[in-house]
Write a structure and sequence with these properties.
about 290 residues, mainly beta, 4-stranded antiparallel sheet
Length: about 290
């Protein structure tokens, strides 16, 4: 009886150099795209021309990732050149915050304190002023609001008072410093609060009390929307001071008597000659008792 022995051999996949170019859907190059070998810590990034080079085996899978674009995975196989066109991913933009001078950055990559508030969170309880709506939504920010009937801009303190005068932060709307009271609540897409000196350095001494960056909504291709909303605010005075209506102006309990003088008085004042009058030039009401 004979025996049959089977000998198997296992070929180790050898690394090869994979090169290529990464572009956007419109053909523009994408510098700084992350390319990694899936399941490993090996990776690289594209240069200023969108080109890359990485060592990978034929069984490996390359993962291409970039902020604002969908992650793309491509098996290497027998390929030595892999050119990739990344598709835009609008959902990933939620992870990006607008920093100084309108620059969009990945929130995780920032080395300073930044907090963002989405527009829909500012309009849960409607307020005519964006700054008032910010109250209680950002850590380290104190909003000293005003009455809604006054339509005034509240005072905002970021990380406490850092000067003797307690100045307000700099408001920047779509890259332009402006008055926050001029911004329509429904036009706000996102609001970013830059707190520390590192975050506000690009704005100079104007941003010594912090910066509030407002990004407004923009039209989207292929979408037509119409939003209608209405808000009604009613105020009622809770407390009024007590007024006295018993004594008139002046410091004497005696009425003054009007004496017509044609040299200094108009002619039509002649009919008031002899009438009793009060001294309303006084700033107090210690005059005679009113007789109705």
């Amino acid at each position: 009886m004979g025996c049959l022995f089977l000998f198997g051999t296992q070929a180790n996949a050898q690394d090869r150099t994979v090169t290529g170019k990464v572009t956007a859907e419109d053909g523009s190059v994408l510098p700084g795209v992350n390319i990694s070998v899936k399941g490993t810590t090996r990776g690289t990034t594209t240069n200023g021309e969108g080109l890359y080079q990485i060592a990978a085996s034929s069984t490996a899978t390359l993962v291409y990732s970039f902020i604002g674009f969908q992650n793309t995975e491509i098996p290497v196989g027998n390929q030595t050149t892999i050119n990739v066109s990344l598709k835009t991913d609008v959902n990933q933009l939620n992870e990006v915050v607008v920093t100084a001078l309108g620059i969009s950055r990945d929130k995780k990559a920032l080395g300073y304190s930044v907090q963002e508030v989405k527009g829909e969170n500012l309009t849960v309880a409607r307020d005519p002023n964006v700054a008032n709506a910010l109250a209680g939504k950002v850590a380290g920010v104190q909003v000293l609001g005003q009455s809604g009937a006054k339509f005034g801009t509240p005072s905002i303190r970021i990380r406490g008072v850092n000067s003797l005068t307690g100045s307000d932060p700099l408001y920047v709307v779509d890259g332009t410093p402006t008055d926050i009271s001029q911004v329509n609540m429904d036009d706000v897409e996102s609001l970013t609060v830059l707190k520390g000196p590192s975050a506000t350095a690009l704005y100079g001494n104007r941003a010594s009390a912090g910066v509030i960056v407002v990004t407004t909504k923009r039209a989207k291709s292929g979408e037509t929307t119409l939003n209608i909303n209405h808000s009604t605010t009613m105020d009622m005075v809770a407390l009024l001071p007590d007024y006295q209506n018993e004594y008139g102006g002046g410091y004497s309990q005696d009425f003054d008597t009007f004496q017509f003088n044609p040299a200094i008085h108009p002619a039509d004042w002649a009919s008031f000659n002899g009438q009793r009058i009060l001294d309303y030039s006084a700033d107090e009401s210690w005059g005679p008792k009113l007789d109705g």
